[in-house]
Amino acid sequence: MKPKRTILCVDDNEQSLSYRKIMLETRGYRVASYSRGEDALDRFKQGGVDLVVTDMSMPGMDGPQLIAAVKTLSPHIPAILISSKVRVYDHESQADVFLARGMYAPADLLERIRLLLIRKRGPKRIQRSTHLPRQAGAA
Fold it and tell me: Is the model's pLDDT at 23 over the cut of 60?
C-alpha cells in the first residue's frame, strides 16, 4: 500500500477550507488545514508536506507570500493558488497552478493535484521506461 500524500490547505474562509479538507481526505490524502498563512508555514517547516493549496487573499501572510516562502525552503514542492479574482497576474506568484474560485470543478482540482504529485515524484520511472526502447532502437 502506498503512503498517503500530505496536502497543506490554507484558506481564511472556514467553509471553503472544510469542504476542501473533506474532499481531499475522502480521496485518500492526509490534510493539514490552516486559516492563517503564518500557521501553515510553521507546519510546513516541520516537514512531510507534499503539496500546498492556498487561497490568494488572506489577512497577514497571503497566498502568494506563503507560496514564495515555501518555494524558498523547498523549490520542488508544488503549489496551487486559488482566488476569487480572475486576474492573478496582477500579483507576483510562484504557484504551479492558478484556479479561479467558482470557475473549476472539484474533479479539476483533484486532477491537478494528482498530476502535480506525479511530477513531484520525479522522472525516475519515466527515464527507466524510455531508456529501454532507446537501447533497443540503437542496437
Answer: yes
Residue pLDDT, tens place only, 92-108:
678 999 888 878 889 99
The grid coordinates listed for 13 are 474562509
d(CA 81, CA 34): 15
Residues across the chain: 139
Q: What angle in degrees, to the nearest 10, is found between the helix axes of 37-45 and 63-73?
A: 10
What number of other Cβ atoms are within 10 A of residue 79's Cβ? 23
Specify the DSSP class assigned to residue 33: E
Calculate Rg over the CA atoms of the chain. Answer: 17
Determine contact, residues 9/41, Cβ cutoff 8 Å: no
Q: Which element (helix H / strand E) includes 87?
A: none
Q: Where are the domains of the chain?
A: 6-138
CATH-assigned architecture of domain 6-138: 3-Layer(aba) Sandwich (3.40)
Does the pTM exceed 0.70?
yes
Contact partners, residue 75, CB within 8 Å, separation at least 6: none
